[in-house]
Amino acid sequence: MIKSKYINIICIGAAALAALLTLLLMILSGAAQKLQPAGSFSSSPEYAGRLFDPDRVHTIDIRIGDWAGFLQNAGKEEYVSCTLVIDGEEFSQVGLRAKGNNSLRLTREYGLSRYSLKAEFDHFLDGGNYYGLDKLSLDASFQDNSYMKTFLVYDMMALMNVPAPLCSYVQVTVNGEPWGLFLAIEEPEEAFVQRCFGSLDGNLYKPDYRSLNAENKDLALQYIDDDPDSYPNLFDNAKLPSSAADRKRLIRALKTLSTGENLETAVHVDEVLRYFTVQVFVMNQDSYLGHTGHNYYLYEKDGVMSILPWDYNLAFGTYALGMTDPIRDPNVLINYPINTPAEGEVMLNRPLYHNLMKQDKYFARYHAYFDTLLSDYFENGRFEATLRRTERLIAPYVQNDPTAFCSYADHQLAVDTLEEICLLRAKSIRGQLEGTIPATIRGQQEQPASRVDASHIRIADLGDFDDLEKNF
Hints:
The chain has helices spanning 2-33, 67-72, 102-109, 149-159, 190-197, 232-235, 244-259, 269-281, 330-334, 344-348, 351-357, 360-378, 382-399, 408-434, 441-446, 465-468; strands spanning 58-63, 80-86, 89-99, 116-120, 135-139, 167-174, 177-186, 203-205, 296-301, 304-309. It is α+β, with helices and mostly antiparallel strands.
């Protein structure tokens, strides 16, 4: 009896000690994570001025037990727990996985291990966040020797007042060992929605295809019928909780879009026109207007839709995956017409662009936004200043990048090429606006001599598959 009594006392004491240790660990974990209360997202979040300060290169150390195992299983895209040390501050129990579609597959097939990554602060830790941020990605600059495509496109989107992710450059290490220069990007989820739209009252989707061989009408934002089950590419990819009423409201917006009438009741027209202005300028075929029709986010609130930017490593004419006859001619690419920025079959199946542009008032506004983009970004020196300032900022890190897809000389060539492509593209579009260059595919085919001469440009200098076969 006495022995039993002592055993009970010891057990009770051990349980109490375990509870105390658990509480202490929770407190320490919360302190290390710089947690804000769950759901306390801000329209002016603290993370915007910390990690996403674009005027310096930040640091992230990934502390993980089995990095080799993580790389070996990258294709599974499964989250593992790690600790991130961001600019010297430690954040524990962060979910980490590889990301990408073809970029992930091809990186592995070429025997490389420089994967783009996703870091989710609340995957393993309820309420986990980085100063209010729930999720970020680390972009590896696959097929982008300049390291700048995505950075510059988001800068253009911000200039045009299109809600776009924040981004900044990050020197990544793994367990203290150099891994490479990446672009940290704010992933569109709750924190992004709160920052851009002021509340979580709306809905966010990242439509994507299950198979490119499927019809994918919902991915193209076509109205099919009133059954939510007919829209798996949309509703299976909701980023915020979506109710039956939410789905019904979005389907109703798609139905209105399909009619081409009363579009402002279903589409945030002005914002969408600004989005397409940048999208068409950067010749991004891996997009809503391209072969795949994906790589965008869809935001809906009160039955009104907006399309939001995402994924630009294959912009500026470098997309060719899955295309039987990709365009390689720089004269065609750099002069690509703003009125018909895709082949007829694609255009007819993209109602968010096509049905807006059938309205004369929207078409004129679209052209006016091109004038704004050219005047405020390319014709006043802002673009060159941004590009060269960014080049100087990242140069030492690119030069010493141990996992780079290219040599430093190739990086410098890509930066120069990107600058010339953009300036020639701006010149061509100015000519299209003024009528000296046809603004349609047919018109340019009939008057090829009117185009801006870009025959000396080698688009592949921005980054191509040949680079992946080299060992840097």
